[in-house]
């Protein structure tokens, strides 16, 4: 009888669940659902938060769409999710299992996401320097906690545990009172040394950080525990992997050779390749550098150009147009408008319009915002603008990691992945124009598949 690995990804805009057959590594079922969990708070414009209850409800609904007979034969569960963000909960009452078949969120905070912008440049410069090769930016878990300690210390008093959203799900599934976290997610919080796999305890304590909130670190690719109850038909006692970063899992799902570079464009965008096995990161960060080194597996690293501006830029463009149309009493759904924009751009093969799409800035250059240049009377059609916007997304990520850098690293192929690339032919055309190397697209290349593959390979 076949057994399956359940791979789950809790992303910024959606959740996805896949069932991977253990023997063949084939995806036998998958579903994705939007979380529609964003919290709009006009009093805090730079806050980016999501409703934890809605995220867990979407996860439950998504898993509920998978075949129940296969869920009963799941041999292990893996989770990945959006990195950098932080969620707080009460260790002994963080969820409610009264339904018996699944849990719901209880006694948790909202999720403060990686897009949160409340840590200003002045605030970040006031923090101590981390003992890490990675810089600290707004939206990083440790920076967010320090911001709360300064501005709303009473908020933290009601919680005993902190982690990413995927760490929270793992803790609830395993019935843990605390939180375990892999170096992949710990590094994304900042103030974590990936060489020693240790938090900067002394530095954080000196800054007034509540170090009891720091999760216990466990190896990437290892287990966190076993399910404490039946879950959607999955038996109690099923092994659960410690949560991984969505970026690393997306890479794992489609990087077939060390000479591959992976371009992932989903909500944000990343371009990455594997560093040599003996690579050691520098002792201290280089804040002005557009390339970072993210921990991967088995003490290895990925060189990463991690852009804040990806599919979210196109989504913002669509939202802007739908808002304008609503004001003009000419409404059209986002989905219908998106399809029309892609069609217009496909009919406009090139454009001399130039769009710099960095509406969110970049971590290495937060004040460099978006621009539109070379505007003329002949390039203002929707086809021109959409084509220029898609090319701008590619121009931005390749400026962060130029083609020459990839060639020097021995990269011979680009593997494209991510939801924005999958649904946007114009973006794929611009990818193929941007790189001298051949471009292929990963089949089933996503974080949910990747985390299931990790468990299949490593447990």
Automatic annotation (TrEMBL):
What is any one GO biological process for this UniProt entry? pentose-phosphate shunt
Q: Report the locations given in the UniProt record.
A: Cytoplasm
Residue ranges occupied by any Carbohydrate kinase FGGY N-terminal domain in the UniProt entry: 4-250
Instruction: Give the EC number(s) listed in the UniProt record.
Output: 2.7.1.14
| Catalytic function, reaction form | sedoheptulose + ATP = D-sedoheptulose 7-phosphate + ADP + H(+)
SUPFAM superfamilies, per database record: Actin-like ATPase domain
Q: Per UniProt, what is one Pfam family of this protein?
A: FGGY_N
Keyword set, alphabetical order: ATP-binding, Cytoplasm, Kinase, Nucleotide-binding, Transferase
One GO MF annotation is: sedoheptulokinase activity
Domain of life of the organism encoding this protein: Eukaryota
Q: Which Gene3D superfamilies match?
A: 3.30.420.40
Return the GO cellular component terms, semicolon-separated.
Answer: cytosol
Q: What does this protein do?
A: Acts as a modulator of macrophage activation through control of glucose metabolism.
Similarity annotation? Belongs to the FGGY kinase family.
The protein here is known as Sedoheptulokinase
Species, as recorded: Seriola lalandi dorsalis
């Amino acid at each position: 009888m076949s057994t399956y690995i359940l791979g789950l990804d809790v992303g910024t805009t959606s959740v996805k669940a896949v069932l991977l057959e253990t023997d063949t590594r084939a995806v036998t079922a998958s579903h994705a659902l939007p979380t529609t969990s964003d919290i709009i708070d006009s009093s805090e414009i730079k806050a980016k938060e999501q409703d934890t209850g809605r995220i867990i409800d979407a996860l439950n609904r998504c898993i509920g769409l998978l075949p129940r007979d296969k869920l009963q034969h799941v041999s292990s569960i893996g989770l990945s999710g959006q990195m950098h963000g932080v969620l707080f909960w009460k260790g002994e009452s963080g969820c409610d299992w009264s339904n018996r078949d699944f849990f719901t969120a209880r006694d948790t905070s909202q999720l403060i996401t990686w897009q949160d912008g409340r840590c200003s440049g002045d605030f970040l410069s006031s923090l101590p320097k981390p003992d890490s090769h990675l810089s600290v930016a707004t939206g990083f878990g440790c920076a967010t906690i320090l911001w709360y300690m300064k501005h709303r210390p009473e908020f933290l008093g009601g919680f005993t545990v902190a982690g990413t959203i995927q760490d929270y799900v793992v803790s609830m599934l395993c019935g843990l009172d605390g939180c375990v976290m892999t170096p992949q997610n710990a590094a994304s919080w900042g103030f974590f040394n990936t060489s020693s796999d240790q938090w900067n305890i002394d530095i954080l304590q000196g800054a007034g950080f509540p170090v009891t909130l720091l999760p216990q670190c466990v190896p990437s690719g290892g287990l966190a525990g076993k399910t404490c109850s039946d879950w959607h038909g999955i038996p109690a006692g099923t092994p659960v992997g410690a949560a991984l970063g969505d970026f690393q899992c997306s890479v794992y799902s489609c990087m077939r050779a060390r000479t591959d570079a992976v371009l992932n464009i989903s909500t944000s965008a990343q371009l990455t390749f594997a560093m040599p096995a003996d690579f050691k990161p520098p002792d201290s960060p280089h804040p002005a550098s557009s390339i970072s080194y993210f921990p991967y597996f088995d003490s290895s690293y990925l060189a990463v150009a991690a852009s804040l501006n990806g599919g979210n830029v196109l989504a913002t463009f669509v939202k802007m147009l739908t808002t304008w149309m609503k004001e003009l009493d000419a409404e059209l759904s986002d989905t219908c408008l998106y399809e029309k924009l892609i069609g217009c751009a496909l009919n406009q093969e090139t454009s001399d319009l130039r769009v710099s799409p960095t509406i969110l800035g970049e971590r290495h250059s937060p004040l460099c915002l978006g621009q539109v240049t070379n505007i003329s009377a002949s390039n203002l059609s929707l086809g021109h603008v959409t084509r220029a916007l898609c090319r701008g997304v590619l121009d931005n990520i390749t400026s962060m990691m130029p083609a020459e850098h990839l060639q020097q690293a021995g990269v011979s192929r680009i593997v494209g992945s991510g939801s924005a690339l999958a649904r946007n032919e114009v973006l794929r055309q611009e990818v193929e124009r941007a790189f001298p190397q051949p471009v292929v697209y990963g089949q089933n290349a996503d974080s949910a598949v990747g985390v299931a593959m990790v468990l299949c390979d490593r447990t």
